[in-house]
Task: structure prediction
Amino acid sequence: MTIALPRRSATLLSVAVGVLIGAESGCSSEHIKVTREEPKVETQFYDKGVRTPESAYALHNECANTNWDFHCYSDFDFDVVDDKPIPIGRRVALRIKQVRLRLELPITMYLPEQASLRVRAHEEGHVKICRTAYDSAYAIARDAAQKVVGREFKGDGKTFEQACRIALSNASQEIGRHYRAGTVDKVNTISAMYDRITSTRNDPSYVDTAIEQATRQTEKLWANPGAAKNTSPGGSMNRSSAASNTISNSGTTSTSGTAENSEREP
Result:
């Protein structure tokens, strides 16, 4: 029997106030710059150096967890097209001129020190799913950035600076929605499918085949807009998710999702 600990994924977007420069029209490669960092994979042993009574049991050594975070940090250049006083302070409208994005993918596998080859291979399968999705991250991020270049975003704040940060946070969240849909949402679904498929057969030689099947099933599922992404235990998969958006005074926007999966194998 294998029990996977909760699996977490997230997309983080950070906004920095850009400099004010002259107006331009249209959208070209000069208006968008995307830097894609290489994925960083780390393995941590949650019971390293600890020999508790539980570590003597096979069940303890079957527990594993992999976390992945798709980061998209954004920075903007913009024109102020409107700035006026309101009862709470200032209201601004900013036209986005340039977008600079930096993409990162940190992945952490949490394993027991006595993890079997089968458990390690299964978690490495989740890493492979993330890496494959991240191969398309550059193009997805560029497409997302193109959706905000030339558009106006409004923000209200106590000060001009705060109003600008909120307006840019709105632009960043717009980018985040599109980036997330093509990366972390896809990974969450494929990973849930992968867990379901490997619940009946989970050996190292089957990992690549299971990933291919999970990917095909996800593409088929997403090709039908009317298909349910979440099904009952007797259906395609079990997956729960939650999303939240927060804006702080520093102008940081965080969009996060949580997917919890549990698997049991004879």
Notes: The radius of gyration is 22 Å. The first strand starts at residue 8 and ends at 16. The chain is about 30% helix and 30% strand.
